[in-house]
Amino acid sequence: MKKVDLYRIKAGLEDFGEVKNGAFAYKVIKNLKMINEEIELLNKLKVPSKEYAEKVQTKIQETIRKYAEVDKSGKPIEETTPEGMTIKVDKTREAEFIIERDKILNKEKELVDSYDKQFEAFLKVIEEDSDIKLIMFKESDIPAEVTVKQLYQVKELLVD
């Protein structure tokens, strides 16, 4: 199992929140505790420097708000992306936004390049095999109300 798989397995285990089987729930909680600790350490690898956060992320967020598509009350419209919630840029002003964003990125090129290297290192680390020893589930452990989708998300934890 790769470290990147822990993110999917965590989501799968969290999806078992309504399961009432005590022994199964205990295994879920124990696994979540171990996975959360590992993910917390992994996520620290991608936290940008304070300088990058101030000079790049903050300025880009301000620029996004400046060029945001707004609703009738003037609030920026948010949309869900694979990265999470983000503010939708007004399509009629997208070219202006890109120019301004690129100016920020070019002005802070050294910081951007440094963070890109840091994030690439994070991506390499999460592709490594995980040493974490999770509690496995036997078929007899699995409550009847668990769905195929739920099991598929935690497939590495199933044993015959």
Question: What is this entry, summarized?
Answer:
With 160 residues, this protein is mainly alpha-helical. 55% of the residues lie in helices and 8% in strands. The protein folds into 2 domains: 5-45 and 129-159, no CATH class; 50-126, no CATH class.
β-sheet strand percentage: 5-15%
- Overall mean pLDDT: 92
> Which structural class should the secondary elements be placed in?
mainly alpha
Integer count of domains: 2
| Distance from first to last alpha carbon | 17 Å
Would you give an account of this structure?
- The strands form two sheets. Strands 1-2 form a two-stranded antiparallel sheet. The protein has a two-stranded parallel ribbon with strand order 3-4.
- It is mainly alpha-helical and about 160 residues long.
- The chain is elongated.
- β1 and β2 form a beta hairpin.
- Helix content is about 55%, strand content about 10%.
- The protein has two domains: about 70 residues, no CATH class; about 80 residues, no CATH class.
- It contains six helices and four strands; from the N terminus they run αααββααβαβ.
- The mean pLDDT is about 90.
- The longest helix has 23 residues.
